[in-house]
Design a protein that fits this description.
about 375 residues, alpha+beta, Nucleotidyltransferase, domain 5, Gyrase A, domain 2, 3 domains, 5-stranded mixed β-sheet, 9 helices, 13 strands, about 45% helix, rod-shaped, disordered N terminus
């Protein structure tokens, strides 16, 4: 009993997964249009033998409803049965025996949703509390009426039938060469429900399998569509992320290129500035040169031209004594290597001597800013 209790209230992971898919299938089934819920049985494939009192009614499933074929006594011989029925009846793929509703026990039970994976076992444990017969003398079947996720409950419809009654009907149909694949206890004209089968082991329902196959295919299609939507969403998210990353990389690349251009411009400006600074440091300012010439040249000397180029200066003009100019220029710390560029000539207009002198300009440390 402890094992049963553990199984009932402590399902393992596999059981929980099964419970989830049962619930999921049930939810999807509730959303399926009624057209798809109809059994996938071709016309004429189902044969129903409904036992009513002392008789049996043979019905064939055509155009979505049961069509009566014949009525016989329940104790008729195989020969009598064959004489009443068309030969095609004996090659029907699915035969259902239907018990009279007044011979069975029909009840409703409520369980927690978590009980669904082990519902068959749980019902087996409770048979002695809901049946007037001992559990070994009855057959039972059930179908789920409702799953209430809000309340967490499972409403179950339970059918109980005496074994003796079921066995007698099955034996009778076997004698007629019409062994049933299913025994149910629904109303005389209700549609066939392969989920309700009182046969031990639930028999072999090929047609029910087809109905479930149709349902399973629908579930498979829905799940495939959901998976496709999930995959598409994932791919779209991934594509968006890649696009965003590509945009960020492109933006970073453009910013880096702009930074490189700015860096090159700054470098060029620095080089130009350095060049100008070097030029400034390597040359004495013209004003300083003029000021120095004004100081060292005598008052009887007039400059007519001064050409300052690089580190040299060329002077031209008139002086009363041009020969004294070289020594005066040489004494200045700003000039060196002073020399006449041409011969001194007499200027008749002024009475002085016309000269052309060239000298190098020195840059004393600390004098030039």
């Amino acid at each position: 009993m402890s094992n049963a209790t553990s199984t009932q209230y402590g399902p393992d992971l596999g059981t929980r997964v099964q419970a989830f898919f049962r619930w999921w299938s049930g939810e999807l089934w509730d959303m399926v249009p009624d057209f798809f819920k109809q059994p996938a049985y071709p016309d004429g494939e189902l044969l129903l033998v409904s036992f009513e009192g002392d008789g049996a009614v043979f019905l064939e499933y055509e155009s979505g409803q049961w069509q009566e074929l014949a009525r016989i006594l329940a104790n008729s011989s195989p020969v009598e049965v064959r004489s009443k029925l068309p030969a095609s009846v004996f090659v029907k793929k699915i035969r259902i025996a239907r018990l009279p509703t007044n011979k069975i026990l029909h009840t409703h039970l409520t369980f927690p949703l978590s009980a669904e994976p082990e519902l068959e076992k749980i019902l087996g444990y409770q048979l002695d509390t809901i049946s007037p017969y001992p559990p070994d003398q009855i057959y039972h079947a059930h179908r789920i009426q409702d799953r209430d996720g809000g309340r967490g409950t499972l409403d179950v419809e339970v059918f109980l039938a005496p074994k003796e009654l079921v066995d007698n009907i099955v034996d009778r149909m076997r004698e007629w060469d019409l062994a049933p694949a299913s025994v149910d206890c629904l109303g005389a004209r209700e549609p066939f429900d392969p989920g309700i089968n009182l046969l031990p082991g639930n028999g072999s329902l090929t047609g029910g399998g087809r109905r479930l196959s149709r349902f399973n295919m629908l579930l498979l299609l829905v799940n495939l569509l959901l998976l496709a939507a999930l995959a598409l969403t994932h791919l779209m998210d991934k594509a968006d992320a890649e696009q965003e990353l590509t945009t960020l990389v492109q933006t970073a690349r453009e910013e880096a290129e702009s930074a490189n251009v700015l860096r090159e411009q700054v470098t060029k400006l620095q080089e130009q500035n350095s060049f100008l600074e070097d030029m400034k440091k390597s040359r004495v300012p013209a004003l300083q040169v003029i000021d120095e010439l004004t100081k060292i040249l005598p008052d009887d000397t007039w400059l007519e031209g001064a050409l300052y180029s690089a580190n040299e200066i060329s002077l031209s003009g008139v002086s009363s004594k041009s020969s004294n100019l070289i020594s005066k220029i040489e004494r200045s710390p700003l000039f060196e290597e002073a020399a006449f560029q041409s011969s001194v000539v007499q200027d008749f207009r002024s009475g002085g001597e016309r000269f052309q002198i060239r000298a190098r300009i020195t840059v004393p440390h600390g004098d030039v800013e």
